[in-house]
Please model this.
Amino acid sequence: MTVRGFFPDDLGTFIGSVTTAEPEAVIRLREETSKLPAAGMQIGEDQTAFMTLMAKLIGARRAIEIGTFTGMSAIAVAQALPPDGELICCDVNEEWTSIAKRYWTELGLADRITLRLAPAALTLDALIDNGDGGTFDLAFIDADKTGYDTYYEKCLTLMRPGGLILLDNMLWHGRVADSLDRDEDTVALRTLSEKIGEDDRVDSCLASIGDGVMIARKK
Ligand SMILES: C[S@@+](CC[C@H](N)C(=O)[O-])C[C@H]1O[C@@H](n2cnc3c(N)ncnc32)[C@H](O)[C@@H]1O
Model:
Protein backbone atom coordinates (compact mmCIF):
# COMPACT_ATOMS: atom_id res chain seq x y z
CA MET A 1 0.00 0.00 0.00
CA THR A 2 1.09 3.61 -0.59
CA VAL A 3 0.00 6.16 2.00
CA ARG A 4 -0.53 9.85 1.25
CA GLY A 5 1.18 12.64 3.15
CA PHE A 6 3.71 15.42 2.97
CA PHE A 7 6.42 13.18 1.55
CA PRO A 8 7.36 11.62 -1.83
CA ASP A 9 5.45 8.58 -3.15
CA ASP A 10 8.37 6.18 -2.57
CA LEU A 11 8.43 7.12 1.11
CA GLY A 12 4.65 6.64 1.21
CA THR A 13 5.15 3.15 -0.20
CA PHE A 14 7.75 2.42 2.48
CA ILE A 15 5.48 3.70 5.29
CA GLY A 16 2.65 1.61 3.89
CA SER A 17 4.86 -1.48 3.79
CA VAL A 18 5.66 -1.25 7.53
CA THR A 19 2.12 -0.35 8.68
CA THR A 20 -0.18 -3.10 10.01
CA ALA A 21 -2.00 -4.64 7.03
CA GLU A 22 -5.76 -4.10 6.79
CA PRO A 23 -8.29 -6.97 6.67
CA GLU A 24 -9.68 -7.93 3.27
CA ALA A 25 -13.08 -6.31 3.99
CA VAL A 26 -11.41 -2.98 4.79
CA ILE A 27 -9.43 -3.13 1.54
CA ARG A 28 -12.74 -3.74 -0.26
CA LEU A 29 -14.25 -0.70 1.49
CA ARG A 30 -11.33 1.38 0.20
CA GLU A 31 -11.95 0.07 -3.33
CA GLU A 32 -15.68 0.78 -3.18
CA THR A 33 -15.10 4.28 -1.77
CA SER A 34 -12.46 5.05 -4.43
CA LYS A 35 -15.23 4.99 -7.05
CA LEU A 36 -17.11 7.86 -5.37
CA PRO A 37 -16.47 11.47 -6.49
CA ALA A 38 -15.76 12.38 -2.83
CA ALA A 39 -13.26 9.50 -2.37
CA GLY A 40 -10.49 11.85 -1.21
CA MET A 41 -12.34 12.38 2.09
CA GLN A 42 -11.44 8.90 3.35
CA ILE A 43 -8.56 8.65 5.82
CA GLY A 44 -5.45 6.71 4.73
CA GLU A 45 -4.09 3.39 5.97
CA ASP A 46 -1.43 4.93 8.23
CA GLN A 47 -3.99 7.19 9.90
CA THR A 48 -6.34 4.25 10.44
CA ALA A 49 -3.54 2.31 12.15
CA PHE A 50 -2.57 5.39 14.16
CA MET A 51 -6.11 5.99 15.42
CA THR A 52 -6.59 2.34 16.38
CA LEU A 53 -3.34 2.51 18.33
CA MET A 54 -4.35 5.76 20.08
CA ALA A 55 -7.69 4.30 21.14
CA LYS A 56 -6.00 1.14 22.44
CA LEU A 57 -3.29 3.10 24.27
CA ILE A 58 -5.84 5.02 26.34
CA GLY A 59 -8.06 1.95 26.84
CA ALA A 60 -10.98 3.75 25.16
CA ARG A 61 -14.45 2.37 25.90
CA ARG A 62 -16.67 5.26 24.80
CA ALA A 63 -15.95 7.36 21.71
CA ILE A 64 -17.60 9.83 19.38
CA GLU A 65 -16.95 10.67 15.76
CA ILE A 66 -18.02 13.76 13.83
CA GLY A 67 -17.93 12.99 10.10
CA THR A 68 -18.32 9.31 9.16
CA PHE A 69 -18.57 9.20 5.33
CA THR A 70 -18.22 5.50 4.31
CA GLY A 71 -17.05 4.41 7.74
CA MET A 72 -13.25 4.04 7.65
CA SER A 73 -12.33 6.15 10.69
CA ALA A 74 -15.21 4.56 12.62
CA ILE A 75 -13.69 1.14 11.91
CA ALA A 76 -10.31 2.44 13.12
CA VAL A 77 -11.80 3.40 16.49
CA ALA A 78 -14.47 0.70 16.90
CA GLN A 79 -12.00 -2.16 16.37
CA ALA A 80 -9.99 -0.85 19.35
CA LEU A 81 -12.99 -0.81 21.71
CA PRO A 82 -13.98 -3.74 23.93
CA PRO A 83 -17.10 -5.68 22.78
CA ASP A 84 -19.29 -3.67 25.18
CA GLY A 85 -17.70 -0.37 24.08
CA GLU A 86 -19.64 2.33 22.25
CA LEU A 87 -18.87 4.60 19.31
CA ILE A 88 -21.41 7.29 18.41
CA CYS A 89 -21.05 8.40 14.78
CA CYS A 90 -22.43 11.76 13.63
CA ASP A 91 -23.16 12.40 9.96
CA VAL A 92 -25.86 13.93 7.75
CA ASN A 93 -25.49 11.76 4.63
CA GLU A 94 -27.63 8.62 4.43
CA GLU A 95 -26.13 7.34 1.16
CA TRP A 96 -22.49 7.37 2.31
CA THR A 97 -23.26 6.01 5.79
CA SER A 98 -25.32 3.14 4.34
CA ILE A 99 -22.06 1.91 2.79
CA ALA A 100 -20.42 2.27 6.22
CA LYS A 101 -23.14 0.22 7.90
CA ARG A 102 -22.67 -2.69 5.49
CA TYR A 103 -18.97 -2.95 6.33
CA TRP A 104 -19.48 -2.45 10.09
CA THR A 105 -21.83 -5.45 10.01
CA GLU A 106 -19.42 -7.55 7.95
CA LEU A 107 -16.55 -6.73 10.35
CA GLY A 108 -18.65 -7.59 13.43
CA LEU A 109 -18.50 -4.01 14.72
CA ALA A 110 -22.13 -2.94 14.19
CA ASP A 111 -23.15 -3.75 17.78
CA ARG A 112 -20.75 -1.17 19.19
CA ILE A 113 -21.54 1.65 16.70
CA THR A 114 -24.56 3.97 16.87
CA LEU A 115 -25.11 6.24 13.86
CA ARG A 116 -26.88 9.55 14.51
CA LEU A 117 -28.02 11.10 11.23
CA ALA A 118 -28.36 14.78 12.16
CA PRO A 119 -26.19 17.90 12.19
CA ALA A 120 -23.38 16.98 14.59
CA ALA A 121 -23.80 20.04 16.80
CA LEU A 122 -27.35 18.89 17.64
CA THR A 123 -26.19 15.38 18.54
CA LEU A 124 -23.38 16.73 20.73
CA ASP A 125 -25.79 19.14 22.47
CA ALA A 126 -28.23 16.31 23.11
CA LEU A 127 -25.46 14.25 24.74
CA ILE A 128 -24.40 17.18 26.91
CA ASP A 129 -28.04 17.88 27.89
CA ASN A 130 -28.40 14.19 28.74
CA GLY A 131 -25.63 14.51 31.35
CA ASP A 132 -22.96 12.68 29.32
CA GLY A 133 -20.31 15.35 29.94
CA GLY A 134 -16.99 13.88 31.13
CA THR A 135 -17.93 10.32 30.08
CA PHE A 136 -16.14 9.93 26.71
CA ASP A 137 -12.57 8.71 26.19
CA LEU A 138 -11.98 9.76 22.60
CA ALA A 139 -13.41 12.04 19.89
CA PHE A 140 -12.52 12.28 16.21
CA ILE A 141 -13.51 15.46 14.33
CA ASP A 142 -13.60 15.19 10.52
CA ALA A 143 -16.62 17.07 9.14
CA ASP A 144 -17.33 20.63 7.89
CA LYS A 145 -14.22 22.68 8.65
CA THR A 146 -16.01 25.86 9.76
CA GLY A 147 -17.80 23.77 12.39
CA TYR A 148 -14.59 22.42 13.96
CA ASP A 149 -14.32 25.03 16.73
CA THR A 150 -17.89 24.33 17.86
CA TYR A 151 -17.27 20.56 17.76
CA TYR A 152 -13.99 20.97 19.65
CA GLU A 153 -15.67 22.90 22.49
CA LYS A 154 -18.56 20.46 22.78
CA CYS A 155 -16.21 17.45 22.63
CA LEU A 156 -14.06 18.99 25.34
CA THR A 157 -17.16 19.05 27.56
CA LEU A 158 -17.89 15.41 26.72
CA MET A 159 -14.33 14.11 27.34
CA ARG A 160 -13.15 12.76 30.68
CA PRO A 161 -9.85 14.13 32.01
CA GLY A 162 -7.16 12.28 30.04
CA GLY A 163 -9.53 11.84 27.08
CA LEU A 164 -8.28 12.54 23.55
CA ILE A 165 -9.71 14.74 20.82
CA LEU A 166 -8.26 14.02 17.37
CA LEU A 167 -8.93 16.60 14.63
CA ASP A 168 -8.32 15.73 10.97
CA ASN A 169 -7.02 17.87 8.07
CA MET A 170 -5.34 20.37 10.36
CA LEU A 171 -2.58 20.99 7.78
CA TRP A 172 -5.20 21.42 5.02
CA HIS A 173 -2.79 20.34 2.28
CA GLY A 174 -0.27 22.88 3.62
CA ARG A 175 -2.60 25.83 3.13
CA VAL A 176 -2.69 26.75 6.85
CA ALA A 177 0.94 27.90 6.60
CA ASP A 178 0.10 30.43 3.87
CA SER A 179 -1.08 33.54 5.72
CA LEU A 180 -2.32 35.00 2.42
CA ASP A 181 -4.81 32.12 2.07
CA ARG A 182 -8.03 33.65 3.43
CA ASP A 183 -10.41 30.88 2.31
CA GLU A 184 -12.95 30.34 5.12
CA ASP A 185 -12.02 26.68 5.68
CA THR A 186 -8.30 27.53 5.76
CA VAL A 187 -8.89 30.39 8.21
CA ALA A 188 -11.11 28.19 10.43
CA LEU A 189 -8.47 25.45 10.64
CA ARG A 190 -5.53 27.82 11.11
CA THR A 191 -7.34 29.79 13.83
CA LEU A 192 -8.37 26.64 15.67
CA SER A 193 -4.84 25.20 15.55
CA GLU A 194 -3.52 28.42 17.06
CA LYS A 195 -6.23 28.35 19.72
CA ILE A 196 -5.55 24.70 20.68
CA GLY A 197 -1.80 25.37 20.77
CA GLU A 198 -2.43 27.98 23.49
CA ASP A 199 -5.31 26.20 25.22
CA ASP A 200 -4.49 25.56 28.91
CA ARG A 201 -7.26 22.96 29.09
CA VAL A 202 -5.31 20.50 26.91
CA ASP A 203 -1.87 19.14 26.04
CA SER A 204 -1.55 19.12 22.28
CA CYS A 205 0.55 18.17 19.29
CA LEU A 206 -0.10 18.64 15.57
CA ALA A 207 1.14 15.38 14.01
CA SER A 208 1.94 15.36 10.27
CA ILE A 209 0.10 12.10 9.60
CA GLY A 210 -2.13 12.17 6.50
CA ASP A 211 -3.34 15.77 6.12
CA GLY A 212 -2.36 16.59 9.72
CA VAL A 213 -3.94 15.21 12.89
CA MET A 214 -4.15 17.52 15.91
CA ILE A 215 -4.06 15.54 19.14
CA ALA A 216 -5.54 17.35 22.13
CA ARG A 217 -5.55 15.59 25.51
CA LYS A 218 -7.93 17.01 28.10
CA LYS A 219 -6.12 17.84 31.36
C1 LIG B 1 -14.18 14.09 5.40
S1 LIG B 1 -15.67 13.20 5.46
C2 LIG B 1 -15.37 12.06 6.79
C3 LIG B 1 -14.42 10.96 6.40
C4 LIG B 1 -14.40 9.80 7.38
N1 LIG B 1 -13.95 10.24 8.70
C5 LIG B 1 -13.55 8.64 6.86
O1 LIG B 1 -12.58 8.26 7.52
O2 LIG B 1 -13.86 8.11 5.79
C6 LIG B 1 -16.79 14.38 6.16
C7 LIG B 1 -18.16 13.86 6.54
O3 LIG B 1 -18.78 14.88 7.35
C8 LIG B 1 -20.17 14.87 7.11
N2 LIG B 1 -20.71 16.15 7.54
C9 LIG B 1 -20.61 17.36 6.92
N3 LIG B 1 -21.24 18.30 7.63
C10 LIG B 1 -21.75 17.69 8.74
C11 LIG B 1 -22.50 18.14 9.87
N4 LIG B 1 -22.86 19.41 10.02
N5 LIG B 1 -22.84 17.22 10.81
C12 LIG B 1 -22.48 15.92 10.68
N6 LIG B 1 -21.76 15.46 9.64
C13 LIG B 1 -21.41 16.32 8.68
C14 LIG B 1 -20.26 14.60 5.60
O4 LIG B 1 -21.54 14.08 5.27
C15 LIG B 1 -19.12 13.61 5.38
O5 LIG B 1 -19.57 12.28 5.41
Q: What stands out?
A: The pocket of S-adenosylmethionine is lined by residues 41-43, 67-70, 72-73, 90-93, 96, 119-120, 142-144, 147 (CB under 6 Å). The chain has a mean pLDDT of 97. Residues 9-218 form a domain with the Rossmann fold fold (CATH 3.40.50.150). Residues 184-197 form the longest helix (14 residues).
